[in-house]
Amino acid sequence: MLNRPRTADKGFSLVELSIVLVILGLLVGGILAGQSLIRASELRAVTSENQRYTTAMGAFRDKYFAIPGDFARASSGFAWTGAADGDGDGMVEGSTTAASNETGHFWHQLVAAGLVEGSYTPASWAAVGTTATSPKSKLPLAFWQMRYVAPVGVDDTVIGTTGGATNVMYEGNYQDAFFLMSGTTLVTPSGGVLRPEEAWNIDTKMDDGRPALGIVLSLESQGHATAGCANPAGLATTSAAAAYDLDNTSATACSLVIKSGY
Which residue has the higher pLDDT, 155 or 100? Predict the structure, then answer.
């Protein structure tokens, strides 16, 4: 029998392996860069969305001499299907009944007046926070909501508790304020949508970079009792003491409260 010559074992050369590793590195780098760009776009949207809704709120007030949702003549003289009258006291107040929940009718009346796009069905304030009731932000999981907040004292807990952490607001006079959060209720908003550094960046661009001062403020979210949005966390505290917890680089512990000026 003739012996056949052995063929050389085939494999990748060091050059070929190097090329593959370089290509993989470029792909991973491109994916990470793309994710960073997408997130930056989502964060920029927060500012533009707030400006759009604040402008719409002001235009409504200039035209009808009332705050949307609180408009006492919404059901009369306007072809606004499903519109209900507010009490006209200048406060967008919540209610457990959909028909009298001004926080739910806020978005419905802005759409009916042609000032905001979309279609929102008024609901009780324990059921707001879905695409059917309020605008969804470009920021994942986040919704825009409106609520009147009475003056908050230094130790007032104004939003309920669950999951081992307390939702609180810092002392101050909020009046009608926009909430950016992931919760499905304005009674106990259930989650943050921003990391502290992201909230700080937005606050710095729009206001003063302080979670308890100015127009843009933070809301300590449930589920983050030890890794919170700001220090000190816990019960509402004095305005001068708070700062965003920039050491917390992982948890999306922050929701925002932005005063409308009305």
Answer: 100
Give the Cα separation of 192 and 201 in Å (integer).
15
- Say if residues 147 and 186 touch (Cβ distance below 8 Å): yes
C-alpha distances (whole Å) from 229 to each of 50, 61, 196, 245 are: 20, 33, 5, 6
Tell the burial category of 31 from Cβ atoms under 10 Å away from its Cβ (0-12, 13-18, 19+). Answer: exposed
Instruction: Give tens-digit pLDDT for 69-84.
Output: 999 999 887 888 888 8
Residue 6 has pLDDT above 90, yes or no: no
**Residues 6 or more apart in contact with residue 41 via CB below 8 angstroms:** 138
* pLDDT tens digits, one per residue of 86-120: 999 999 998 888 888 898 899 999 999 999 999 88
**pTM score, whole prediction:** 0.79
Higher pLDDT, 26 or 233: 26
For 26, residues 6+ apart whose C-beta sits below 8 A from its C-beta are none
Could you write out the DSSP letters of every residue in the chain?
Answer: -PPPPPPPPP---HHHHHHHHHHHHHHHHHHHHHHHHHHHHHHHHHHHHHHHHHHHHHHHHHHHSS-TTT-TTTTSSS--TT------SS-----SSGGG-HHHHHHHHHHHTTSS-S------TTS--STTTSPBPSSTT-EEEEEEEPPBPTT---S-EETTEE-B--SB--EEEEEEE--S-SSS-----B-HHHHHHHHHHHS-S-TTSSSEEEEEPTT-SSS-SEES-SS---GGG-EE-TT--S---EEEEEE---
